[in-house]
Amino acid sequence: MISLAASRLRRRLRAGGLPPGARSRLRAACVGPIVLALTGVTGPALAQAYQCSLPGRLDPIRPPRVDGPVRKVPVARYVLAASWSPEYCKSARNGSSMQCSGRNGRFGFVLHGLWPEAAKGPPPQWCSLTPRPRPETIRRNLCMTPVPWLLEHEWAKHGSCMAKKPETYFKVSGILWRSVQWPDADRLSRKRDLTAGDLREAFLAANPAWKREQIGVETNKRGWLRGMRLCYSRRFMPSRCERDDFGAPDSARLKIWRGL
After folding, report:
1. pTM for the whole thing?
2. 254 within some domain
3. Average pLDDT of 231-244?
């Protein structure tokens, strides 16, 4: 089964879509996560999508609104950004959305996006608005990112700078997303005197191959958890986070809105 999954990944990469040289790097980096996922290595209870069910139909998605300049610069590293849904939904304007309504599942950590970063300065962005993701591609990834318009936005703003096809971008994002065990932040929220370091410890307990400096914790100004950021090298291996991605230091007090 492991060899079959690896073979499928290799076929996907051979089909094209990644920049020259990236295929071999991703192939080498992702076979390990596939092995972990298929052999059932687990940690604390997950806090991702609880019994996620897809909506019966999807409304048409408008093309994304470009919110900045086109910036085509070499990719030096990547950040996998996860959002903590209860905190987002607490103040979301659209409480009837798939992510927040509760009709399609109770979401904890969800994927915001996979972001290519530059070695220095602003990251690459808005490299191309075409091709747009097909409706079936959007639908296939809704339990990972339960916001249809965000999937299209992330592809256009970030994914188009690292892959030629939306399908390849979401395939890579999904492999990285499923290769880690996300901590049960709902349970952790009940700990007294909780800190950002406690959340990192919970992640490390579930993912012993990672190191503390590779795990970012994002909070708002009042110390509430907004999400986590995992940092990768250009070879898609865990790497030290830059200061902005590392976010809250271990000593920072942390509050987690449950709402699940």
Report:
1. 0.83
2. no
3. 97
